[in-house]
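To the wet lab folks,

You asked to see what we're planning to order before we commit. Fair enough. Below is the target structure as tokens, and below that is the sequence we designed to fit it. If anything looks off to you, flag it before the synthesis order goes out.
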């Protein structure tokens, strides 16, 4: 619970921190300090809208009962796993993130020199970066709350860690190995996403949207209870279920096989390019 919350917030916050860090470093290097207020306004607006999205999600989530609640939880988990998958694929492709962001900032600054209206482009860039990560975090936490729960301590430590990494990456002449961080976190996020897929299928089976089939392939709860201390940890991180259904197990296996196949293909591309 603590680790999964930490992993989600650290990964989500890091992307926003990198965008803000690159923008601020570029503005400082090019003596465009007058646009830093625009960056601050973008951050503030993104945070406020993210908090608003959390209230909206909680409002809708709390309005369901019985079968409707199971359907909502099931689709929330599957949707969260889709978002996690796109995030994982994005991390695999990042090689020159700083240069890409600087290119966008340079374009906005060049346009702003002709008209102050174009400074809104910089504001929107920051706003979208913060808001996107905020909304995704809300959805991920909503999905985690249905499985292992959310840890405030883990989430807070994740945010602090991501901000620290983002700060050291740019202040320390980009000596932080983001590729290694992205690789390790990608593998862990894949396991979390697979667990969300399986739990989502389980909820949809409970709601009778997916046939139950073989209800319990095995039952290991007497040995390793999924609601116990260690079982809850495995449940939150790896999607452990002590008595999974056959369809639930197949969904977990198919997702892992598919994403690791794509991961292997993407990871092997640079090697082929060198030969």
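Sequence we intend to order:
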């Amino acid at each position: 619970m603590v680790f999964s919350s930490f992993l989600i917030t650290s990964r989500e916050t890091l992307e926003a921190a990198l965008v803000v860090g690159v923008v601020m470093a570029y503005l400082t290097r090019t003596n465009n300090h007058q646009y830093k207020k625009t960056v601050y306004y973008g951050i503030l607006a993104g945070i406020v809208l993210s908090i608003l999205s959390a209230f909206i999600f909680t409002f809708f989530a709390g309005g369901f009962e019985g079968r409707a609640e199971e359907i909502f939880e099931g689709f929330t988990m599957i949707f969260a796993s889709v978002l996690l998958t796109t995030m994982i694929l994005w991390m695999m492709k990042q090689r020159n993130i700083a240069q890409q962001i600087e290119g966008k900032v340079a374009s906005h600054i060049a346009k702003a020199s002709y008209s102050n209206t174009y400074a809104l482009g910089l504001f929107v860039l920051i706003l979208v970066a913060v808001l996107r990560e905020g909304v995704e975090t809300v959805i991920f936490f909503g999905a985690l709350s249905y499985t292992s729960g959310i840890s405030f301590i883990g989430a807070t430590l994740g945010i602090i860690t991501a901000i620290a990494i983002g700060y050291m990456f740019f202040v320390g002449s980009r000596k932080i190995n983001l590729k290694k961080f992205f690789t390790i976190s990608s593998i862990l996020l894949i396991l979390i996403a697979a667990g969300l897929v399986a739990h989502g299928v389980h909820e949809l089976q409970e709601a009778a949207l997916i046939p139950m089939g073989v209800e319990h392939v095995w039952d290991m709860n007497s040995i390793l209870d999924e609601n116990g201390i260690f079982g809850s940890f495995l449940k939150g991180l790896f999607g452990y279920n002590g008595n999974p259904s056959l369809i639930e197990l197949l969904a977990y296996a198919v997702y892992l096989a598919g994403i690791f196949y794509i991961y292997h293909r993407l990871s092997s591309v640079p090697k082929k390019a060198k030969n």
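Structural context that might help your review: The chain has one domain: 2-274. Residues 2-274 form one domain.

Thanks,
Computational group
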